[in-house]
């Protein structure tokens, strides 16, 4: 089966600019996750979708971050405006459903904010 | 709120030696626990999950609810085991929390 796809792989922007990341999960996976991974830390959950509904977004900085999952399939994560501290790898993952099912990760997007 | 702690950032062992990567968690409910691994230049991928009670690549992990731990063990480390290892917890509601990872280096 095809894996989780993410684009772009790398992005460099200046602070206060906006950026968007795209994720295409594994076909048939109901649950989609966006994580932020800062260098030296583990992945931090930003938002979790079940189909096209939000299950958890408690750690999403909603003043600058937004995410949507179109028709319960693809998802986009946007940052506007970006800050220096947003420099990180943004990981997308999907699973059949949440709970005891494993998550399949994409390659990530490395964002550098200058 | 749930929390996952991996006390060792770095762990170095010689080939053939036993290895144990520690994971402690805090969660009031019944957790689902996982170990994920990231080899150099590869994606994060599942190594094993406690519900399966399986051994993958010689690794095992036992959930100890009394000590709230889920340590990863392998009796004889191999060089190809060198990687970054993350312990993760899913709550009853399916929310995921990852530890900060342990970098394992297996020396020849």
Overview of this structure, please?
The complex is a heterodimer of chains A (114) and B (108). The N and C termini of chain A lie far apart (37 Å). Chain A is mostly beta strands and 114 residues long. Chain A has strands spanning 5-7, 10-13, 19-24, 31-37, 44-50, 53-56, 65-69, 75-79, 88-95, 104-105, 109-113. In chain A, strand 9 and strand 10 form a beta hairpin. In chain A, the strands form two sheets. In chain A, strands 2, 4, 5, 6, 9, 10 and 11 form a seven-stranded mixed β-sheet that branches. With 108 residues, chain B is mainly beta. In chain B, 0% of the residues lie in helices and 50% in strands. In chain B, strands 2, 5, 6, 9, 10 and 11 form a six-stranded mixed β-sheet that branches. Chain B has a three-stranded antiparallel β-sheet with strand order 3-8-7, with no helix packed on it. Chain B has a two-stranded antiparallel ribbon with strand order 1-4. The radius of gyration of chain B is 13 Å and the shape is globular. The interface between A and B is medium-sized, with 27 and 23 residues.
Termini distance of chain A? 37 Å
Structural class by secondary-structure content of chain A: mainly beta
Average the pLDDT over all residues of chain B and give the rounded result: 93
Order of helices and strands of chain A: EEEEEEEEEEE
- Whole-angstrom Rg of chain B: 13 Å
Beta-strand percentage range of chain B: over 45%
Portion of residues in beta strands of chain A equals over 45%
Can you count the helices of chain B? Answer: 0
| Largest interface, C-beta within 8 A | A-B, 27 and 23 residues
Q: What best-fitting shape of chain A do the alpha-carbon axes yield?
A: globular
Class from helix and strand fractions of chain B: mainly beta
pLDDT < 50 runs, ≥5 residues of chain B: none
């Amino acid at each position: 089966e095809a894996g989780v796809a993410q684009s772009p792989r790398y992005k460099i922007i200046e602070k206060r600019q906006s950026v968007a990341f795209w994720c295409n999960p594994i076909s048939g996976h109901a649950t989609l996750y966006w994580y932020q991974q800062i260098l030296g830390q583990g992945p931090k959950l930003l938002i979790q979708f079940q189909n096209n509904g939000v299950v958890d977004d408690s750690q999403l900085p909603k003043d600058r971050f937004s995410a949507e999952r179109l028709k319960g399939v693809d998802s986009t994560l946007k940052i506007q405006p970006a800050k220096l501290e947003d420099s990180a790898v943004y990981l997308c993952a999907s699973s059949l459903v949440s709970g005891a099912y494993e998550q399949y990760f994409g390659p990530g997007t490395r964002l550098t904010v200058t | 709120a749930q929390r996952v702690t991996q006390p060792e950032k770095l762990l170095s062992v010689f080939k053939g030696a036993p290895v144990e990567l520690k994971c402690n968690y805090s969660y009031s409910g019944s957790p689902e626990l996982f170990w994920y691994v990231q080899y150099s230049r590869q994606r994060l991928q599942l190594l094993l999950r406690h519900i399966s009670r399986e051994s993958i690549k010689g690794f095992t992990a036992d959930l100890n609810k009394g000590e709230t731990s889920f340590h990863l063990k392998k009796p004889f480390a191999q060089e190809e085991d060198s990687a970054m290892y993350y312990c993760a917890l899913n709550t009853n509601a399916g929310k995921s929390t990852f530890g900060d990872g342990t970098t394992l280096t297996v020396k020849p």
